[in-house]
Specification:
heterodimer, A: mainly beta, B: mainly beta, seven-stranded mixed β-sheet, globular
Chain lengths: 114, 117
Amino acid sequence: KNQVEQSPQSLIILEGKNCTLQCNYTVSPFSNLRWYKQDTGRGPVSLTIMTFSENTKSNGRYTATLDADTKQSSLHITASQLSDSASYICVVSDNAGNNRKLIWGLGTSLAVNP
Amino acid sequence: GAVVSQHPSWVICKSGTSVKIECRSLDFQATTMFWYRQFPKQSLMLMATSNEGSKATYEQGVEKDKFLINHASLTLSTLTVTSAHPEDSSFYICSAGRGRHSNQPQHFGDGTRLSIL
C-alpha cells in the first residue's frame, strides 16, 4: 500500500534555530516528491518538487533532500522565523500510468516561538 | 507566479442548503482543476478531478450526485455541495494545474471553510 509517513508529528522551536523534518514513503513506482507549507486555514503552498534524480533542492531558507534508495526525504529549515509556524506536508506522486496519484502525508506541525 | 482564487472563504448555512464554491485560475488557463477535502488534523483528500469541457472524475467513495462539479471554462470550476448536512462540514480546497494529472505542478486556492448547522 502506498503510504507517506512524516515525523515528528509536531515540533516547537525557538526563533532563529534550525530544524529538520522527516518523510518516509513506500510509494512505488515513484515520480516525484513535494514539500508544501500550509498555514492554518489556508491552502498549501509549494516549497520544493524533486524527481528521482535530484538529491537536494533549496528554496530560500528551506532545503529538501531526497534519498530514492532508502525512500526518505527531509526538509531543513534554517534560521527559523515566527512566520515559519505552519504545517509542513510531504507529498509523493506515483508514476502509475494514466492514473497517477498524489499521496499526502499527515504533516508536521511546526511552532516557532519568540 | 500563478494564482488560484477560491470563493467564498467561509460559509455557514442551515442543513439542507446547497452551497456553491468557485475556483478560478487568475493568470493561466487551467486544463485541470482538483477538488480536495480536509478534516482537522488530517491530510488533504482528493475528491474529484475536473477537466474542462468534460465530466469530472470522482474518487472512490465520493458521491457525484452530492458533490456536483462544473468546469465550463479554462479559468473556472465550481463545486456544489447539494443538500448539505452537518457531516459535510469541512475545509474544501481547489487546485489548478496545466496538465491533466494530479502529479503535475498544482497551485492551490486558500480554501473554503464550510460549516453546516
